[in-house]
Amino acid sequence: MSPSSRKKVLVKRSLALRLALVVTAGVLLAGCAPAASDSPVVPAADAPSPAASVDDQAFAPTVISPDDLDGKDATVKIGTSLVLTVPDGTEAEWTGTTGDVAIAEFSPGGPSEGSVFHPGFLPRTVGSTPATLTGPDGKTIRFTLSVVAP
After folding, report:
1. How confident is the model at residue 58, as a pLDDT?
2. In the chain, how many domains are there?
């Protein structure tokens, strides 16, 4: 056998081997996927529908800068929170109070379990309460926090 014909045979065998590997891999992967007949067909009328209740839905938090609170009224819904946008790295340096912790209370920020959380206020029950927020510079921001029903 001449060297050029031997090379052609090796190239053909190599291509045939690659093709066989691709086909085998495809067959094995197809065997991992469930067949369409494996899952029962549920008529649309019998399929469960998502909950439509307001009580089951999540609300987004109210996000605000501390400077936007100074001397103002802030409103937050029960089931959400008032999240403060503070400069990165200062999250744990902010403190806060409320006049009535039964209505809302301060939630400190800072690192926890590999994440960094922003400080904020957690609503407890419907009502209004005076609140304060003190930043790392010692400046105290006073505002009224009103908690409303969702």
Report:
1. 77
2. 2
Residues 6+ apart with CB under 8 A from 142: 70, 71, 130, 131, 132
Check which CATH number belongs to the domain holding 132 and give it. Answer: 2.60.40.2020
Are both 68 and 140 inside the same structural domain? yes
* Domain housing 20: 3-32
Low-confidence ranges of the chain (pLDDT < 50): 10-11, 15, 17, 42-45, 52
Cα(2)–Cα(10) distance, integer angstroms: 12
- Please state, in angstroms and rounded to a whole number, the distance separating the CA atoms of residues 93 and 150: 31
Q: Which pLDDT value is given to residue 67?
A: 94
Are 80 and 28 within one domain?
A: no
Q: Are strands 120-123 and 115-117 parallel, antiparallel or unpaired?
A: unpaired
Element spanning 93, H or E: none
